[in-house]
Structures are given as structure tokens and as C-alpha cells.
Specification:
With 165 residues, the protein is α/β, with parallel strands linked by helices. It contains 6 helices and 4 strands, in the order E-H-H-H-E-H-E-H-E-H. The radius of gyration is 17 Å and the shape is globular.
Length: 165
């Protein structure tokens, strides 16, 4: 069975306390500088922020990704489908892949809305997550539909420009 995970960046809910996010970012920076794994405190803060209650008003980004997902899903010929967020919002990429596996997916394609080459999320973080998942699930065919062809993106952007010109 096939599955598709659509990954967005993820946003912070408008009513999530800023000090939680500041503390998480500080802990992440310290960990990266030290080259260590996430502490229990960092993991707990990340989970709290990701699981913060959301509505379309408090997280319009999430609502936007859900709208894209709703438009994409019927085009996937019955493939299992899940949304995921790189940070600040749940479910994570790993959680969504695991969910599709639990539903019987054995071939999963991960695609992101982050089109621009050079981004740490799309070039480093998502591939690292997928490498860990491949190690954990050796029989799983897990593809990352990235990088995007810059000419295809340019044509898509041109269509958008023409709508407003």
C-alpha cells in the first residue's frame, strides 16, 4: 500500500506563550552547539508547543496546509495520506510516517511545501528524520520527493503572477 506525507514548516499558535518558544529555541541552540541529543526538558517543551490547542484563528498556517492537503488528497489515487509539520505543530514527520505504516503503507513518499533550495529544514532536518525511519523500518520504501525542479517552481510562480497582472 502507498502513502503520501505532506510536510509544512509549522507555525506557532498565536496564543502560545512566547517564553515557551524562546526557551525551546535556546535549548535547541545549546544542544546543537554541544552536539548532543535533545534533553528531556527540550523534548517536553517541543511536545507542549506542538500539541498546543489550535484553531484557524490561532494558527492560520495550519489551516492553510490543511486546505492544500484537502486539495491534494483526491489526486493521489487512493493512497493513504497524512499531514506533518517540521516544527512547532503536530504531528511531526516521524509521527505521520509511523501512522501510515500502522495503516499498512509499505511505500511512502514524503513531499514538502518548502520549495527553495538551501533551507535547513528541507535539506537537512527532513532527510535526517527519514534516515532514522529507514533504519527503524528496513522493509519500508521511503522516498523524499525533493529537491523541486526550480523551472517547475518558476512556471508555477509565473502562473500566479499572471493571475494578478
Amino acid at each position: 500500500m502507498r502513502g503520501v506525507v505532506l510536510v509544512g514548516h509549522g507555525g506557532i499558535a498565536k496564543d502560545c506563550p512566547g517564553e515557551l518558544v524562546s526557551k525551546l529555541k535556546r535549548l535547541e541552540a545549546q544542544r546543537r552547539a554541544a552536539g548532543t541529543i535533545p534533553s528531556a526538558e527540550e523534548q517536553e517543551l517541543d511536545a507542549t508547543i506542538r500539541r498546543w490547542p489550535r484553531t484557524a484563528a490561532t494558527d492560520p498556517y495550519r489551516a492553510g496546509l490543511e486546505a492544500i492537503g484537502a486539495a491534494l488528497r483526491p489526486l493521489l489515487n487512493g493512497a493513504l495520506f497524512a499531514l506533518a509539520y517540521n516544527e512547532f505543530c503536530a504531528p511531526s514527520v516521524g509521527e505521520s510516517v509511523e501512522d501510515l505504516i500502522s495503516q499498512g503503507a509499505r511505500h511512502i513518499t514524503v513531499v514538502t511545501t518548502m520549495f527553495t533550495p538551501g533551507g535547513a529544514h528541507s535539506e537537512v532536518e527532513i532527510p535526517e528524520t527519514l534516515a532514522r525511519l529507514r533504519s527503524k523500518h528496513p522493509g519500508l520504501e521511503l522516498q523524499y520527493a525533493w529537491p523541486f525542479d526550480v523551472h517547475v517552481i518558476a512556471k508555477t510562480l509565473l502562473l500566479q503572477v499572471k493571475q494578478f497582472s
